[in-house]
Amino acid sequence: MESLKAKARNRSKFVAELHRKSHFSIPEVERLLKMHEKISSDSHGKSDITKMERQRFTDVLYAEFRMTDDVLIDRIFRAFDVDADSYISAEEWVLGLSIFLRGSVEEQIKYTFKVYDQNADGFISREEMFQFLKNSLVHIQIEEDPDEGIKDMIEIILKKADHDHDSKLSMKDFEETLLDETLMLELLGPCLPSREAKARFLSSIACDRK
Ligand code: CA
Ligand code: CA
Predict the structure, then answer these.
(1) What spacing in Å lies between the alpha carbon of 75 and ligand 1's midpoint?
(2) Which ligand is nearest to the CA of 120?
(3) In 3-state terms, what secondary structure has residue 78?
(4) Span of 15-24, 97-106, 175-184 with lowest mean pLDDT
(5) Fold observed for domain 13-204
(6) Relative to the alpha carbon of 79, which ligand is closest?
(7) Cα of 158 from ligand 1 centre, angstroms
(8) Which H helix or E strand runs over 88?
């Protein structure tokens, strides 16, 4: 009995902590945790492992936010997976969604930087920009080889954002540029939900659903 009580106490402490660290209310945190549990346990049968596998996360991005681009989904997964153990824990789920759905401009700039900094060396290099821009253009049919056009785009981005002229974007370059021009936030490919998807998801956690 005592241990059940202790468990409940720990649980409400955990919920309160996530509420404090995120942009979600207590009831919203509760629902997100339930959702996380449900999605995670589906992939493990009846076990009580509460870690979400990559494939499950990918399914959610598709089902809830209509995101289908594998390259970007892989990067979004890594941005959520803060401890890099290849699972999305309950905490990573709630705090990741907090930035994804309700993050401040500053939080979302940090998040998109993490998405685009593929090798996590603290810079977005020309090569990384090239890969993401090329990936975005794959979906558009272009007659001629688009590589030249992509290189031009990279030069334009660097001219605008590379304040210390080292041919790559640091977090500082990125922040200074994007705080002025938030329209450029997803300049290398969509990694935040559309307005409609966001509204739909938030309303689904705002009301009680069985
Ligand atoms: Ca993790
Ligand atoms: Ca990099």
Answers:
(1) 13
(2) 2
(3) helix
(4) 175-184
(5) Recoverin; domain 1 (1.10.238)
(6) 1
(7) 33
(8) strand 87-89
Distance CA 109, CA 130 (A): 19
pLDDT tens-digit series, residues 59-99: 999 999 999 999 999 999 999 999 999 999 999 999 999 99
The bound ligand whose nearest atom lies closest to the alpha carbon of 77 is 1
Q: Please answer whether residues 188 and 205 qualify as being in contact, where contact means their C-beta atoms are separated by less than 8 angstroms.
A: no
Ligand nearest 169 Cα, by number? Answer: 2
Q: Structure tokens of 1?
A: 């009995």
More confident residue, 58 or 43: 58
Nearest to 97 by CA among 129, 52, 43: 52
Block residue for tokens 């994007």: 178
Q: How far is the CA of 129 from the centre of ligand 2 (A)?
A: 9
**55 DSSP assignment:** H
Confidence at residue 210, expressed as pLDDT on a 0 to 100 scale: 45
CA distance 22 to 32: 12
- Asked if residues 31 and 205 have their Cβ atoms less than 8 Å apart, the reply is yes
Q: What is the pLDDT of residues 96-115, one digit of tens each?
A: 999 999 999 999 999 999 99
- Here the tokens at position 57 are 């996360």
- Tell which residue, 97, 68, 63, has the closest CA to residue 82: 97
The rounded Å distance from CA 76 to ligand 1 centre is 12
Note the pLDDT of residue 113: 97
